[in-house]
Amino acid sequence: MADSRLQDAIQPEEGADFESNAGSSLTSITSSVLRGKVEDGRVYAVYGKEEYGMPMDNVELDRIDMCHAKYYALLEKKRFLAPIGDNPQRILDLGCGTGIWTIDIAEMFPSADATGVDIAQTQQAWASPNAHFELDDIEQPFPHPASTFDFIFARDLILSIRDWPHLISQIHTCLKPGGWAEFQCVTGLLRCDDASLPAQSPMRDLADAMWTSTHVFGTPIDDPLRWRGWFEARGFEEVTEVVYKLPCNPWPRDARLRLAGALEMENLLFGLSGMVMRLFSKALGWSAAEVQVFLVGVRREIRNQGVHCYWPL
C-alpha cells in the first residue's frame, strides 16, 4: 500500500504509557443452521459453502457492535464514504453480522429498502420497518435480479471471501447503472511510523501469523490491497481508495483517533481469541492452549501506549 495514500503521521499523546452446505435465502432453515457448531468453546456458522473463520456467538456479536462505533469515530462520524446522494431506493449490506449498519442506514434513508445478508441469523428483531435480513452465502449466486441496487456495501469480510473477483462481478451485475459499491476492511498488516515497535515484538509475531494463516486458509489478509485492481478489471468507474490509520490502542494525541484506538484496544484484548482461534487451528495446526499462550504476550503489548502501531483500514 503506497504511503502517499495514507494519512499523515499520527502524533502520540504526551507521556502516555500504561498497560491496561451452500444455499440461498429461499432454502429451508433447519435448527442446526440456526444453532451453528461449537469448536473450542466458540460457536461458528454452518451455513455456506466454505468455513468462515469468525464465531457467531454473543461475544462475537458484542464485538461487532463495538466495532461499528469504532469505525464511526475513525471515519469522522460517517457510515460510508460513497457519494450515493440523498435518495437511494435499494441498499444491500453484504455480511451484515448483527445488522447494526443495515438498521442505521435504513433509519438514515427512511424511504429506502435496506437488505442485510449474512450466513448467520444473528440480526436484531426490532429493526426499522424498511430494514430486513436474508440468510445467504454471498459467495454463491445472488438471488437478486440485475440492476436492483443503488448502493452495495460490505465491511470487514475478513476470513470469509475466497473469490473476490467473483463477488465484485456479482455486485457489478446487481447494481443499477450509476450505482455505487463500497468495501471497508482492516487489513491486519501492522504498521508503525516511528521506532516504538520493537524488532522482536508479540504484535509483529501476531501480524506474521495472521498473514501466513490467512493465505493457508484461503482468505489472504492482504486481499484489500488488490480490491482496486479487481474493481477496475470488472469495469467499475471512479474507483477510489482511501486508507485510514486505525491505532491499536489510545496512543494518539488527536481525540478522534484516541477514541478509535481505545475501542480497537478493547476489540483486540477481548476479541483476539475469537478472531484467530479457528484460523490458527485450521491453518497452522495450533492447539487451543497454544493459541491462548501466544496471545498473553500480544495482549501485554496491546496495552502499552508507548508502542505506536496501527492497522490500515
From TrEMBL:
Q: In its UniProt record, which GO terms are filed under biological process?
A: methylation
Q: Write down the superkingdom of origin.
A: Eukaryota
InterPro entries per the record?
SAM-dependent_MTases_sf (IPR029063)
Question: Which UniProt keywords are present, listed alphabetically?
Answer: Methyltransferase, Transferase
Q: Where is this region: Disordered?
A: 1-24
Question: GO molecular function of the protein, one example?
Answer: methyltransferase activity
Q: Which family does it belong to?
A: Belongs to the methyltransferase superfamily. LaeA methyltransferase family.
Q: What is this protein called?
A: S-adenosyl-L-methionine-dependent methyltransferase
Species assigned in the record: Cercophora scortea
What does UniProt list as this organism's lineage?
A: Eukaryota, Fungi, Dikarya, Ascomycota, Pezizomycotina
